[in-house]
Write a structure and sequence with these properties.
- By secondary structure, the protein is an alpha+beta fold.
- It has one domain: Fumarylacetoacetate hydrolase, domain 2.
- The chain contains 4 helices and 15 strands.
- The strands form 4 sheets. It has a 6-stranded mixed beta sheet with strand order 2-1-12-5-6-9, covered by helices on one side. A 4-stranded antiparallel beta sheet has the order 11-10-14-15, with no helix packed on it. A 3-stranded antiparallel beta sheet has the order 7-4-13.
- Strand 10 and strand 11 form a beta hairpin.
- The longest helix has 10 residues.
- The two termini are 26 Å apart.
- The protein binds magnesium ion (MG).
- The site of magnesium ion has 7 residues, from strand 1.
Length: 203
């Protein structure tokens, strides 16, 4: 499986990093080695001193597809959860300054802890969902999917022009404002509405 991540999909987050507002979705990928199996800790990597959390809604693809039209995109998923797109912000800054790809900063082992998937029928409207991240019980990030620049169906339509989506692929749909550093010893908990779907420690 592969993990596709959308960047700069919330205006308030693009602004906090002084990035331009994109006119079309920005995406990159993480390998399956970025996943963290349930309840295992996130191991703070030795190559960075500034690992940031980015809480994001994650969609699981349930059907193979290429060139999917936006109006049919809803047929390609039925479960979502919340995940963390961990980012080595210091390494990413160096990559950006040199105009290099971001993989070192984004695709490293354990950089994609992902929660328990929930059927979308459990939510009233996936385009109006509050999701959040707490560190040691304190809310650090909270967003609403209605603020996405590109919604889930638009993302699927766009990405599938370039990359075939396969059963079991994940799409991380971008983070709202409030990204920040984590440190060893932190307990991270992530929610959609009041459902806690992901919990792990930083070691
Ligand atoms: Mg992200």
């Amino acid at each position: 499986m592969k993990i596709i991540c959308i960047g700069r999909n919330y205006v308030d987050h693009a602004k906090e990093l002084n990035n331009p507002i994109p006119k079309e979705p920005v995406f990159f990928m993480k390998p399956d080695t970025a996943l963290i199996q349930s309840r295992n800790p996130f191991i703070y990597p030795s190559f960075s001193n500034d690992i940031h959390h980015e809480v994001e809604i994650v969609v699981k693809i349930n059907k193979i597809g290429k060139h999917i039209e936006e109006r049919f995109a809803h047929k390609y998923y039925e479960e979502i959860t919340v995940g963390v797109d961990f980012t080595a912000r210091d390494v990413q800054q160096q990559c950006k300054e040199k105009g290099l790809p971001w993989e070192k900063a984004k695709a490293f082992d354990g950089s994609a802890p992902t929660g328990k998937f929930v059927n979308i029928s459990e939510f009233n409207d996936i385009n109006n969902l509050i999701f959040s991240l707490q560190i040691n019980g304190e809310t650090k990030q909270q967003g609403n999917t209605k603020d996405m620049l590109f919604n889930i169906n638009q993302i699927i339509a766009y990405v599938s022009q370039f990359v075939t989506l396969k059963i079991g692929d994940y799409i991380f749909t971008g983070t709202p404002a409030g990204v920040g550093a984590v440190k060893i010893g932190d307990k991270i908990e992530c929610f959609i509405e009041d459902k806690k779907l992901l919990s792990f420690n930083v070691k």
